[in-house]
Specification:
By secondary structure, the protein is of the alpha/beta class. The protein contains 11 helices and 21 strands. The radius of gyration is 20 Å and the shape is globular. 50% of the residues are buried.
């Protein structure tokens, strides 16, 4: 049996962790899509009318999910959708809970002509508070699904719930400003940006006094320069910086070279965690200069249960990412991932077989990036990497 010191070293922890200095702990996850079908089973459903070629009513997604996995109750309590994730929050008690909210929170009927429109009724937004969410990043391809009025209502609703936002706002200054969380040992700053490769229309870019998101037309140094400047302007000694980035296609494990070069560049500019999403399933993980890069966290909540065609990626499986960082330095100390499964619009613990499948998949992809993923007896996945000397 390994000693505690050997076990900690195996997890890639630094001397700081071994000395029992309390790390900064973050919860991260893939896209949270609480609109459309999920909105319909919450206490205050929106008008279910959709403008999709595939489905004309959000209730159709409820019916498809029920056909696949059995009945779903209606007017469920706000904690319902989080299911077994709530016990994991209670067990691990992260300092901050950060999600990418890929849903507009609005009663607006001005649907953008883009084929798919996600909307949650403002009275249902309390479901986010039920999970203790601290920060919602909004720079993605669904937050303006119901127009700029819908975005403004989204931001106002989250503000009323005391959930801070990043990546979108009433004007360019508000969209660019990070969500700031004060701590005794330094602040945590959360920035966010979106790219056209994930489906974000260029017209959604915030500009001057125009509401919108932080939009990166590409991942070149020139396009990233304003974002890097914003980070330099606001980061103080001792701060930890998280950059949420919505990029890339929904399916597939390949990580484009420009994603890696951009992520590395952002680390060099002062980012401590690159928090990538858009893929509908978890993809590769990297540790670069002791900083965590999540290239794609996969979906976390959605209404896709009855939709087939991508079974090889196991899109019903998702992960809770619990990230431990060294205070002030921002170096990665530990990454644990709890596997869950979306079933009946609710998060449930994944089986051992499913957890092993996720472990094998992430380990296969991770080896290409210099890391390993292992499975603990309690079905938790953990990251192994080689820390770099400073």
């Amino acid at each position: 049996m390994r000693s505690r010191r050997e076990f900690l070293r195996h997890l890639g922890l630094s001397r700081l962790a071994m000395a029992n200095v309390r790390p900064i702990t973050l919860f991260l996850c893939g896209d949270v899509m609480t609109g459309r079908g999920i909105d319909q089973v919450l206490p205050h459903p929106s008008n279910p009318v959709l403008y999709e070629g595939y489905m004309k009513s959000a209730l159709g997604y409820v019916a498809e999910a029920e056909q696949a996995n059995g009945p779903i109750p209606r007017r469920v309590g706000f904690p319902y959708i989080w299911g077994d994730a709530l016990a994991e929050f209670d067990r691990l008690r992260p300092d901050l809970r950060i999600i990418n909210l890929e849903t507009s929170i609005t009663t607006s009927g001005a649907a953008e002509p883009k084929g798919i429109n996600y909307r949650m009724h403002p009275a249902n937004a309390a479901c986010l508070s039920a999970a203790g969410i601290d920060c919602a990043t909004l720079a993605n391809n669904h937050v303006l699904d119901w127009g700029r009025a819908g975005l403004i209502e989204t931001c106002a609703t989250l503000e009323r719930l005391h959930i801070r936002t990043a990546g979108a706002g009433r004007d360019l200054a508000a969209a660019t400003a990070p969500a700031v969380f004060e701590r005794k040992d330094g602040r945590v700053l959360v920035f966010a940006a979106g790219t056209p490769a994930s489906g974000v229309p260029e017209a959604w870019a915030a500009a001057g006094d125009r509401p919108g998101i932080v939009f990166l037309p590409d991942l070149s140094s020139r396009a990233a320069a304003p974002l890097a400047a914003a980070i330099h302007e606001r980061k103080r000694p001792g701060d930890t910086v998280v950059l949420s980035i919505h990029w890339g296609p929904n399916w597939g494990y390949a990580i484009p070279p420009d994603h890696r070069s951009f992520a590395h560049r952002m680390v060099e500019e002062g980012v401590d965690v690159v928090y990538g999403h858009s893929s509908h399933h978890p993809i590769g993980i990297e540790v670069f200069r002791n900083k965590l890069i999540l290239y794609g966290c996969g979906d976390f909540l959605n209404d896709y249960e009855g939709i087939g065609g991508y079974e090889e990626y196991r899109p019903e499986l998702c992960l809770m990412y619990f990230v431990a960082l060294q205070p002030a330095a921002g170096d990665l100390l530990k990454l644990e991932m709890k596997p869950l499964e979306i079933r009946n619009f609710r998060l449930r613990h994944a089986s051992l077989k499913s957890a092993q499948w996720l472990c094998n998949t992430l380990d296969r992809e991770g080896q290409k990036l210099g890391i390993r993923v292992h499975l603990k007896p309690d079905h938790t996945l953990y990251l192994e990497w080689q820390p770099q000397a400073r």
